[in-house]
Amino acid sequence: MKQPWRAKAACNGLDPTIFYPHSDEDEDATDAKSVCAVCSVQNECLEHALGFREKEGIWGGATERERRRIIRQRRRAAYAAAGRRSA
Ligand code: SF4
């Protein structure tokens, strides 16, 4: 298995459609997020989705919009850190 964390996923065996809600709105993502909230590999799952730029679905408890926000925040932090190093 390429991603051993998947074996510990709380969503294993659940209906995958709950992780692909019709919209990116919080109320549509509630069921998936409640599963992710108790998943022991939530962080690994989120990092996977961020690293592979997963476009759809709930990963690591985050919607696509929330993952884009995390990526932007990390990018800004990296730029700021680089600026501090070169100053
Ligand atoms: S964080 Fe959510 S989507 Fe990711 S493995 Fe766990 S239950 Fe599944």
Characterise the protein shown here.
The protein is mainly alpha-helical and 87 residues long. Helix content is 47%, strand content 0%. The chain has three helices and no strands. The protein has helices at residues 30-37, 42-51, 64-86. The termini are far apart. The mean pLDDT is 94.
Question: How many beta-strand runs?
Answer: 0
The whole-number mean of residue pLDDT values reads: 94
**How many domain units?**
1
> Helical percent range?
40-55%
Order of helices and strands: HHH
First-residue to last-residue Cα separation: 45 Å
Strand content: under 5%
Unreliable stretches: none
Tell me the Rg in angstroms: 15 Å
Bound molecules: iron/sulfur cluster
Number of helices: 3
Please identify the structural class as seen in this structure: mainly alpha
Largest sheet: none
The 3D shape can be described as globular
